[in-house]
Structures are given as structure tokens and as C-alpha cells.
């Protein structure tokens, strides 16, 4: 059995499975995981799974463009997507709040906002400029140009936010396997205080965040690994036993890992993703 040990790239697998011409460019910089694009021919409901990420999504159609900031659900959620559209998205790293938004991560949980309503864009060119870009690479380059300007105006995190970022980084780097008590020892604050600021800012506990990271790692494992049996998979992914793995996976994905694996093999998940560099 192969186990993927490089840096986690959070995924929405059903966007890959249910859309057309899915492409992505891995970035792993400025708090951004990757950029992606796809088409959707018909309006349909697509399952969104927890990833603890914020996405900036740009929806292009005949009548113009809509832009959104979208937060993560905390369990599998069916969301309607509009057909006859082309989409461009920017997925931020788990727990990373994009700069330039006047909402919190807690506000974004299970929600989407029109980007123009919450974006701190002094001259209003960010969203309007994105509408003019027609090619994947051009959209990426323009987004980075404008996002970097927002970053330059952003104050560095301090106090609670600095602690929160440190805890999220520990959870992410451990694949969700680090205990809260170990995080508390590392950052020098009590478990109770870490839980308090995490819930205040994120809308859920650090334990849930770790479980979502662990679930996202299991998705990556099932998508790209060579899985011999679910018991071995559960052990490799750090679950206590196979029943816990199945229970958590079903909560976050809406189906068992075995059923998900059969689906990805039947549709050949790997062949649906075009990696652009």
C-alpha cells in the first residue's frame, strides 16, 4: 500500500467527478493551495465535503460574472451549481483566512457571500478585472497581482490570531493527528484557551478541525494511493480502528470509504484531473 506523505492539497472530489474539463494548478504559496477551473453543462446538485478551506469562486456565464467567497461545511452538504457556466476558483489552505475580507472564518462556515459585498477593495478593480480575463493562466496571474496588493495592506496577525494560526499550522502539518494537549504544550497556552479562541474565530473546535484535516488526507489517500484493504488504510491514516475510519468518513463524505473508492475507480478519478504548470 502506498501512502501519500507530501503536503496535503485539500480537495472537493465531487467537483472533479461531476463536472467537465477540470484543471488545477498547484501553488502552495501566500496561503493558497491551488487554482482550479471547470465547466458545468447542466444545473445539478453536487456534494460539498468539509475541507476547512475558503474558496474564492468566479462564475462566468453569458450574462456576465458572479464572484463569491465560500466557506467550508462541517459535514457533507449537497449544493446546487448552475449549468452552462465556466468556473474559476482559488482554494486557500485549510484554516487560512484570505486577506481583504471583512468577515471571519466563523461567518463563512456553511455560507457563501458575494465577493463584492465583503471585499476591502479600495478602487473596485479586483472583481471587475477578473470578469475580463478569459484564459485560466490569465485569471491566475491577474488574481495574484490583485491579491498581493491586498496582502501589502494587511496588518500582520498578533495576539489571538497569531496563536490561532500557530495551532492551525500544527494541525495541518501533523495531518490532523496531533493532540490538542500537545498543541497546548507547543504554543504555551492551555487547552481551554485554545478551544475558546478557536471556536470564537473558526466556529468549531480544534478537534473538529483536526478531524477534517485527517478526512482530507484520507480522500487524497483513496484518490491517489494503492489501497489493499480498509483496515490497513485506517491504520496508515491514524484512525483508532476501521469502524472509526468508516464512521468519520461517512459523516464528512456522505458515503463509506469503500463505496467512495469503488466510485473513484469506476470513473477513474486520476484521469479527470489535468494538472497545469
UniProtKB/TrEMBL annotation:
Molecular functions per Gene Ontology: DNA-binding transcription factor activity; sequence-specific DNA binding
PROSITE patterns xrefs: HTH_ARAC_FAMILY_2
Keywords linked to the UniProt accession: DNA-binding, Transcription, Transcription regulation
SUPFAM superfamilies the UniProt entry points to: Homeodomain-like
InterPro entries: AraC_XylS_family_regulators, DUF6597, Homeodomain-like_sf, HTH_AraC
Superkingdom, taxonomy of origin: Bacteria
Kinase listed as a keyword: no
Alphabetical list of Gene3D superfamilies matching this protein: Homeodomain-like
Residues covered by the HTH araC/xylS-type domain: 161-263
PANTHER family: HTH-TYPE TRANSCRIPTIONAL ACTIVATOR RHAS, HTH-TYPE TRANSCRIPTIONAL ACTIVATOR RHAS-RELATED
Protein name, UniProt field: Bacterial regulatory helix-turn-helix s AraC family protein
UniProt keyword NAD, yes or no: no
